[in-house]
Specification:
Helix content: 10-25%
Structural class: alpha+beta
Radius of gyration: 18 Å
Low-confidence stretches: 18-44
Strand content: 25-35%
InterPro entries: Reeler_dom, Reeler_sf
Mean pLDDT: 76
Oligomer: single chain
Distance between the termini: 39 Å
Number of domains: 1
Organism: Haemaphysalis longicornis
Pfam families: Reeler
Keywords: Signal
Protein name: Reelin domain-containing protein
């Protein structure tokens, strides 16, 4: 029985690993908050030709500062997005306040869509950490979701 159990466990673990690499993950938060889309029906956009814009009202922050981050489209509406905040060294920094059209992810310095409704404009607010100052950059998912199924 023990000889059969080990190969079965190995096969099961390989199948589970394959499933989570090819399908929708159970959580939006991964150790480094992967910005790649988890919906199989989406394609990555070339940033240079993207109809989506991400604008922040300031780059340098002091302790407890609040930065307005605006995501909008110059083309067709979008349904989903992911935005991550990093400092000048590429490390996650700060946190997003909860909003009506997005949810803040407390496990990482990021925000994502709250619903699949069409959006043309989302205004988010980011809060700087209480113990430091620096420069913040916001990274947008390489894919903006048009239509997808969950």
């Amino acid at each position: 029985m023990a000889r059969l159990s080990l190969p079965l466990l190995v096969l099961l673990s390989l199948l589970l690993r394959w499933r989570f690499r090819t399908g929708r993950r159970n959580s939006l938060v991964t150790p480094f908050f992967d910005l790649r889309p988890v919906h199989a029906e989406t394609d990555a956009l070339d940033a240079k030709n993207s109809p989506y814009r991400l604008v922040q009202d300031k780059m340098d922050f002091e302790a407890n500062d609040r930065v307005k981050v605006t995501l909008y489209t110059v083309g067709k509406p979008f349904r989903g997005f992911k935005v991550k905040s990093v400092d000048e060294h590429g490390q996650e920094v700060g946190r997003f306040e909860p909003g009506a059209l997005y949810k803040a992810l407390s496990e990482c310095a990021a925000a994502t869509h709250e619903s699949r409704a069409d959006k043309e404009h989302v205004e988010m607010h980011w809060l700087a950490p209480a113990d430091r100052s620096g420069r913040v950059h916001f990274k947008l998912s390489p894919t903006m979701f048009g239509e997808f199924s969950v």
